[in-house]
Amino acid sequence: MSAHPLAVLREFSPRTRAVLAVNAVNSFGGGLVLPFLWIYLDQVRGLASWIPAATLAVQAATSVVGGLAWGAVLDRLAPRTVVGLVMCVAGLGTGLYAFVTSAPTALTAAVVYGLGISGVGTVLRYLYAGAATARERGLAFSADYAVFNAMTGLGVLVGGLVAASGPGSRAARFAALYVADGLTFLAAGAALLLLLPRIGRGGDREPSAQGPVGYREVLGQRALAVLLGTVALCSLVSYGQLRSGLPGYLTAGGAVGPEGLSGTFAVNIVAAVLTQVVLGERIQRVRRSTVLSLTGVLWAAAWSLVLVAGRQHGTPATVTAMAGVLLLSVGEALVFPVVTGLLNDLADERARGRVNAMLSVAVSTGSVAGPLLAGATLPLADGLPLVVALVAACAAVALVGPALRRTLPAAADLPDPAPETEEPATAAPAPAAGDSQERNPSCSTGR
Question: Which residues are in the Major facilitator superfamily (MFS) profile domain (predicted)?
Fold first, then answer.
């Protein structure tokens, strides 16, 4: 089959295409405000210096707690019911930032937004996982990763232009961006509520007579526990370092300046999108355990290049750093959609919501632990211990793949990629937990 993006798009059911389109709008809204919260609270609203840090910490903590709660709700209620609720809560939360004038209002917005956004990613991945075939599920999460990065990047560009030169006062411009972000959540929720009843219900589940299982049972499955721990480690060495350890190490000794650093972030977004466009369909034919190992090798090479870049200056340092970020981005684009799919193929149908919630928590944990690790180790020996530790962590990721291959069901490690053998898009999903294929979410969904 052709790997042309349009040919792949035509394989998707109306349900999957609708969720992709809705999340594209949602991701654009997230990009509008993505880099600005600290600047907005500190410089624009003139709040005390501790408030931005406390706001981000509260938002992160609420996201973890909220994610676990939404996962349990999804295992009990229809996703269409949950989708409208989480979108409204997230939209209200980000919209509240537009009216922040004090610590209490900032922390209130953080609690509401953290609670809502933790459910958005979980429920959207759940909807993607409703695809009727393993092939469509894998392709959907690869496509979602590309859409998320492309639309978030576009949102960042538009948000930067509005914040810098839009009409009105600076505070009004930033407030307008947060209101616009909130409206994208509401629009996404309304669109999904409108479209889901009109789309084939191939991914809808029959109620289980046994009822949902708890988080203890999810973590009691060794393969799931190992994969969730690996996701947290992957997040720590990639997402968790892109805006902390990487810029901190490269700029501490003057190896790379602000312009070069901006270039590395541009490389990150472009490489992530192009990797999925070029390889998203082809990677479905590769064992997932192999993709995990390959990613570890790529990331170890990436951080080795960053290590070298930090010991150089000028153009050589910038070029070497960009090469490292390129490898880091390719690894991200390959591993997160693939591991998400693997987790869902292994998950018991009754625990689908909880598994996706734990996935969100694992990514968040790594994203939070990354800056903490960077802050503790960057002052030591010019950051050398940090980068060496990251190389070692990447090597550990590479070793997980072969270990998992010995325990994974063959159908979960390499789902049948041939479209001719797939069921029609309206067929009910097969049971999971090692018996067959299940649904897979992408870690990028929902910001």
Answer: 1-410
In a domain, 207, yes or no: no
- For residues 373 and 114, what is the distance between their CA atoms, to the nearest angstrom? 23
> Residue 197 gets which letter from DSSP?
G
CA dihedral 412, 416, 422, 427 (to 10 degrees): 0
For every residue of 373-441, DSSP letters joined together read HHHHHTTSGGGHHHHHHHHHHHHHHHHHHHHHHTTS-HHHHS----GGGSPPTTSPPPP-TTSS-----
Assess whether pLDDT exceeds 60 at residue 446.
no
Q: Are residues 289 and 143 in the same domain?
A: no
Please check whether residues 185 and 302 belong to one and the same domain.
no
Residues in contact with 439: Cβ distance below 8 Å, sequence separation at least 6, in sequence order:
126, 128, 129, 130, 131, 137, 203, 344, 352, 429
Contact 333, 442 (CB under 8 A): no
Task: Please say whether the beta carbons of 189 and 81 come within 8 A.
Answer: no
Q: What is the pLDDT of residues 113-129, one digit of tens each?
A: 999 998 888 888 888 87
Model confidence at 108, in pLDDT bands (50, 70, 90)? very high
Cα–Cα distance measured from residue 418 to residue 93, given in angstroms and rounded to the nearest whole number? 43
CA 361, CA 120: separation in Å to the nearest integer?
13
Burial class (CB in 10 A: 0-12, 13-18, 19+), 211: exposed
Question: Tokens standing for 413?
Answer: 């490690």
- E strand map for 145-189: none
Half-sphere exposure of residue 345: CA atoms within 13 angstroms, side-chain side: 26
Residue 388 has pLDDT above 90, yes or no: yes
Distances (CA, A) of 372 to 288, 378, 396: 30, 10, 20
Position 228 in a domain: yes
Q: Is 439 a domain residue? A: no
CA distance 302 to 311: 15
